[in-house]
Amino acid sequence: MAYVMTQVFSPKEKWGKLTKSVKEQILQRMIVNLSSLAGGNLVRLIAAGQIDGGIPRVVDSEFYVVWSVELNEMSKHIAQHLRESEWNEYFDVVNVGGRALSVPEFADVVLADLERS
After folding, report:
1. What is the full per-residue pLDDT of the chain (117 aa) written as tens digits?
2. The pTM is what?
3. In angstroms, rounded to a whole number, what is the distance separating the alpha carbons of residues 101 and 109?
């Protein structure tokens, strides 16, 4: 199965102080950098959007992106491309990733962890 990487992020104060044209340039660099990975079929964007603050136990972030990659090493490339586009300079980013599991595989992992406790 694929490796899945989820990113949640919120703009830093520095982002709010930029002009619209500078913000557009930064977003364009991010799009170009990540499109190069997607064009090589190395990553696939599953979803991106604004986080719904009305759901229970929501994270304290404003946006999310979910990627599917064939190898967990590729998640490092996603983070690298975001750094190169200056994304991390303007957004607080939290990365979460792991191998995508079926429901039975997930249950086995949770049960194994409970047995170690």
Report:
1. 578 888 899 999 999 999 999 999 988 888 887 777 766 666 788 888 999 988 888 888 999 888 888 766 667 777 777 777 778 889 998 888 888 889 999 899 989 877 775
2. 0.75
3. 9
Domain annotation for the chain: domains and CATH numbers: 3-116 (3.30.70.1030)
Which residues are CB-neighbours of 111 under 8 A, at least 6 positions away?
none
**Which residue in this structure is represented by tokens 């586009």?**
85
Distance CA 27, CA 108 (A): 40
Please work out, in degrees rounded to the nearest 5, the angle formed at the alpha carbon of residue 33 by the alpha carbons of 28 and 34.
Answer: 100
Contact 82, 93 (CB under 8 A): yes
